[in-house]
């Protein structure tokens, strides 16, 4: 039997008012009781803002410690592989999706009248904060959204170097030379933390690849690479010990920046800002 948003809302009303609405108060919109997220970055925002009981499922990406900052928590929550059948079976009254979520799933949800909110990938801190506020409103927790935004802004302020400190030229370097360029959230964070992103001079306009030959010919002062995986020889370790980079000793330093801090906004900005600020402080300390 098909079902839609009207059926879910009717069931919610029949079950009583949402927790937190005092007796006699003028009721506002009923907060969704079963929220499904189909995007790794929306997963992170959702777990910080919604009640645990509201979360019907996260995306499967949330459980991957290599790309998610909430992997331990995500393993205690349901997840989907983003198929329409899985999502519909959960009977959600709100689905959070990105513009890159599976079109077949989004179309099926639309046909069934399931409320689905789509989000773009934030390219600036301001856009990320707007996204936090929007998710908070959608799940009925605007006060938590405001508190989280305040924490993010405080972390960004704390990450700024002392006034007058010259920036260090830097490049984030991932497998196959994948790097963030101008117009990305990572680029803005680097600037806030006192780094000048040299991806611009390599011709990148957004995310793109920087060949190792180009890096060797025109190195930055700092190469930011990922954290090693325990017990494994990671890409980060291979880059940092690449024979060709020996020629840059004394000209280019290296620092760690976990890969999972590069792609999402929201709460991830707090850890990303702290990691970049710590890298900058360690580099400055080694230079003195």
CATH topology of the largest domain: Rossmann fold
Net shape: elongated
Give the helix/strand class. Answer: alpha/beta
Note the gap between the termini.
Answer: 70 Å
CATH superfamily of the largest domain: Nitrogenase molybdenum iron protein domain
Which segments are poorly predicted (pLDDT under 50) over 5 or more consecutive residues?
1-27
Q: Assign the CATH class of the largest domain.
A: Alpha Beta
CATH architecture of the largest domain: 3-Layer(aba) Sandwich
Question: What's the short version?
Answer:
The chain is 39% helix and 14% strand. The protein has 288 residues and is an alpha/beta fold.
Which terms summarize this structure?
Rossmann fold, 288 residues, 11 helices, 11 strands, 4-stranded parallel sheet, 39% helix
Layout of secondary structure:
Blueprint: H1 5-14, E1 35-37, H2 40-49, E2 55-59, H3 71-74, E3 79-80, H4 84-89, E4 94-98, H5 103-111, E5 116-119, H6 125-138, H7 142-159, E6 168-172, E7 178-180, H8 185-192, E8 195-197, E9 207-209, H9 212-217, E10 222-225, H10 235-240, E11 253-256, H11 268-287
Parallel strand pairs: 1-2, 1-4, 2-3, 4-5, 6-8, 6-10, 10-11
Antiparallel strand pairs: 7-9
Helix pairs in contact: 6-7, 7-11
